[in-house]
Amino acid sequence: MVPKRERSVLVSSIDSSKGQTNGKVKCITSPVTSNKAFVIAVVFSSLVLDFGSEAKSQYIVQFTRDLSRTANSTILRHQNVTKNACGKKLNESSMDEIMGQKLAAKWSFYCNTVEHVTTLPIVMLFGIYSDKIGRKPLFLISTVGMFLEYGIKAVAIYMKLPMYFFVIAAGVEGLTGCRYLFSIATNASIADTTERNQTRTTALALVDVFLGIGTFAAKIGAGYMISSMGYFFPVVLTAGLNIFMVIFIIGFVPETLQRKSKKKPTFEIFKDSMSFLYDKTQIHGNKRWKFFYCFFMFISLEISGMAVSGISTIYYMGFPFCWNSKSIGWYSASTSLIHTTIGAMLLKLFVKHGKDEPLAIIGLMSSISNKVVMGLASQSWMLYLGTSVGVLSMLQGVVIRSALSRMVIESKQGSFFMVYELVVILTAIAGTSLATNIYQATVTILRGFPFLVAACLYFFVVLLVIIICIFGGMHPEAGSKRTSTAYKRTSDIATYGSTTQHPSNVNSGGNISSEV
Q1: What CATH number does residue 181 fall under?
Q2: Helix or strand or coil: residue 107?
Q3: Is residue 114 part of a domain?
Q4: Any idea what DSSP says for residue 19?
Q5: How many C-beta atoms surround the C-beta of residue 355 within 10 A?
Q6: What is the pairing mode between strands 24-25 and 493-494?
Q7: Burial letters for 291-325: b for 16+ Cβ neighbours within 10 Å, e otherwise?
Q8: Alpha helices in 175-197 (DSSP H)
């Protein structure tokens, strides 16, 4: 277990008129992103998730491709390798390939729908309790669920079982909150340890960088392992790595929630958790309309991003690209590397010196360019070009997520991120349904049509951002005399996992120091 001294927090010097939120003292700590165990857990969780999901998505494509090529189902069940055969002719794909693409889209839709529908009540249940039980249990439940999911998938691949068992595995993962409980815990931990200013935006951006590092390692490793060993070993390895993750979280990851809510009946906890949605006093600046407007922007943004989810791997493995697991691995890894290095450096520069709304527009224009190039791509190099022009595509997500979090009072951060993830789940259901059905309907006309639909949806979000700019921007206190909510700090602050003390990471101007 983590030594008690590693979780210690020094209460800042607080002004009597500004130092309380909803009757509770705000404990200021250094951002949890400075804690090594937390960083390792986030990076490793991304590595494990992407490693397993890559094997899963490619196996579905290979399975359905073989199914479309033969009427004898016993033959296709013995396939445990990735193949590059994509079309019988150089200038057009075969009917078998088209049928395989449609079947892959259909089974991906089934798995995604079952996973997200079953996870809704779980995320709601543990989300409303996150401000009571803490963040660490959510990390653990999510990781155990991934172990169970990939354990079932490994058995299905090894025993040559039908695709229905992948749907069952998706349901089991859904009943343990999928990756969404892990995301709630991650975001809430950041909110627990950052002030309501640019520090939070930077910390959330750093988490995206950490996730990109894990994705980079996973994509290359998965590509080569699938190519040389088939699908079974990568799936078994994913299950085993999740066991290691459980042990690591128990022993090293800190609990950031220092002041847990009092015991109440479940209904009272639920009502209290959702109170920020109807009580304007729990929104900084009392601008509830602005909060809901920004939340609508977030919903539109999520649907835009999900408009190609579930079909990307199918798209890459289909005609005219005909990529195998190695090609997909290198492309995915290069995408992650570009976003993690160039994108992260530009993001930090823009976040430090720019305002929320221009940053969101820059990110959205990058996303639109990315989706247009991807949708019209006819050669492999055009996919890499799409990645390059989309280097800043994570800007808008970080900015809007940070803006929404800063609007909600500190004692409701866990509840806010629970609602946030519920919306992510609902938009994932809608987005995957949209993407897979559009792909099945347009695969014979224009395979990249879902990407063009996503570009149009992103443009709609651009219009929403421009409108909010006209009415004062995303800051909840814009257009009125702002009341400072930055709490005064002591000269020394104890960091997580260390007794070493250092000065504040945020100066009086709200700028981020090099320590963040």
Answers
A1: 1.20.1250.20
A2: helix
A3: yes
A4: S
A5: 14
A6: unpaired
A7: bebbbebbbbbbbbbbbbbbbbbbbbbbbebbbbb
A8: 180-192
Q: How many domains is the chain built from?
A: 1
In a domain, 444, yes or no: yes
Backbone angles phi, psi at 494, to 5 degrees: -75, 130
Longest dimension (CA), the chain: 76
Q: Is residue 180 part of a domain?
A: yes
Q: How many C-beta atoms lie closer than 10 Å to residue 179's C-beta?
A: 21
What's the helix, strand, coil split of the chain in %, to 5?
70, 0, 30
Q: Which helix (H) or strand (E) holds 493?
A: strand 493-494
Assign 23 to helix, strand or coil. coil
Binned average pLDDT, 10 residues per bin, the chain of 516 residues: 38 35 46 89 89 85 76 44 48 64 84 90 83 87 93 91 91 89 89 80 81 82 84 91 94 82 64 76 78 90 83 84 84 78 68 73 92 92 90 83 85 81 85 84 87 94 91 65 36 36 31 28
Quote the pLDDT of residue 167: 93
**How far is it, in rounded angstroms, from Cα 35 to Cα 9?**
13
Give the separation between CA 498 and CA 126, rounded to whole angstroms: 30
Q: In 51-68, which positions are buried (b, 16+ CB within 10 angstroms) versus exposed (e)?
A: bbbbbbbbbbbbbbbbbb
Residue in the block written with tokens 């992650």: 336
Asked whether residue 3 is assigned to any structural domain, the reply reads no
Distance CA 121, CA 99 (A): 35
DSSP symbols for 375-436: HH--SHHHHHHHHHHTTTTTHHHHHHHHHHHHHB-GGGHHHHHHHHHHHHHHHHHHHHHHHH
Radius of gyration of the chain (CA): 23
In terms of pTM, does the model score above 0.70? Answer: no
Backbone angles phi, psi at 20, to 5 degrees: -130, 145
Q: What are phi and psi of 260, to 5 degrees?
A: -80, 150
**Residue ranges making up the domain that contains 39:** 29-85+92-479
Smallest Cα–Cα separation from 192: which of 497, 413, 424? Answer: 413
Q: Report which DSSP code applies to 32.
A: G
Q: Closest by alpha carbon to 81, among 413, 324, 442, 399?
A: 324
**Residues in Cβ contact with 187 at an 8 Å cutoff, skipping those fewer than 6 apart:** 204, 207, 401, 405, 417, 420
Residue 188: strand, helix, or coil:
helix
Residue 42: phi and psi, rounded to 5, are -65, -45
